[in-house]
Amino acid sequence: MQKVALFYNPASGRRSERRVHVVEGAASVFRASGKEVLVEVTHGPGTAAAQVRDALAKGCDTVVIAGGDGTINDALQGLAGSDAALGVIPMGTGNVLAHDLGLASRASEAAKQLLEFQSRRIALGRVEFSDSGSRASRWFIAVAGVGGSARLMYDVHAGLKGRHGMAAYYFQMARLAFLHRFESFDVEYRNEAGTMQRCVAAEADAVRITNFGGLMRRWAWGAELQRNDAQLILFSTSSRARFLHYTLERILGSKRRTPGVEMIFTKEIVCTAQTPGQRIYAEADGEYIGGPPVKIGIVPNMLNLLMSAKV
User: Fold this and answer.
1) Using CA atoms, how far apart are residues 10 and 3, in angstroms rounded to an integer?
2) Residue 311 covered by a domain
3) Residue that finishes a domain, picked among 116, 147, 166
4) pLDDT tens-digit profile of 20-47?
5) How far is residue 153 CA from its own chain's centroid?
6) How far apart are CA 154 and CA 84, in angstroms?
7) Last-in-domain residue among 116, 138, 171
8) Which pLDDT score is estimated for 181?
9) Residues β-bridged to residue 269
10) What are the pLDDT digits (tens) for 173-183?
11) Is 164 helix (H, G, I), strand (E, B) or coil?
């Protein structure tokens, strides 16, 4: 880490009026250690990728994102496959990657941790989907999901997150659990033996991190960033009782299994509609992206990530 591009989202999370002061505090930590620092504001959703590419062209070897998972995911689109390292300072509504990396919630403390972290080359997930009738693709680092989880992201729009923070997610999750009709769709996945398996599911989550933080911190056990696969959480049941059982067990930190819910390590998942025009929702790193057919794959050696040396 010699030349750092520090990006922040002025609209990410709550208390945005303090953001400039907090970000400058983090930048001063890097400068005090002898690093050259460029501080830039992201221009809006979908713009960070181009800004990151521009920073790399200017010789930055490290990109630090001070924001939430959505801003990180935007930046990831311009960083994947490069030699630069990604660092994270949690400042958004959703900070699951920061939780998994064990980063402090205070920006200046997180910056100090990044100076001690090591750069490690990890795999990234890539999801292909339909968007307004066209095919598109997106990199993800933490999780990609199809079904109710993506419907949650679709319903919790940016304004609601800004006003109510994580409470908006929890409220909408409860509403979906009791009122949402879980649509079934077709799933194919490649098992650890390399064989494609077929089933019907109401929820499919490809998870790459261990700790989500908050109530859902243990949504998938066994998943971790240094693996070259994802932990597929597959709900083959549309039963609300089973969904609530699985959710409660994760809140309690239990590893007890829920009937109708499978956990499989995989590198390839394909989700398709059962009927023409069926609405199925897909999300990547907590952001709604589109619909079916959805193909999720894990690509090794795509990102240098600043991580604790103890991991």
Assistant:
1) 22
2) no
3) 116
4) 888 999 999 999 999 999 999 998 778 8
5) 12
6) 32
7) 116
8) 66
9) 189, 296
10) 555 555 566 78
11) helix
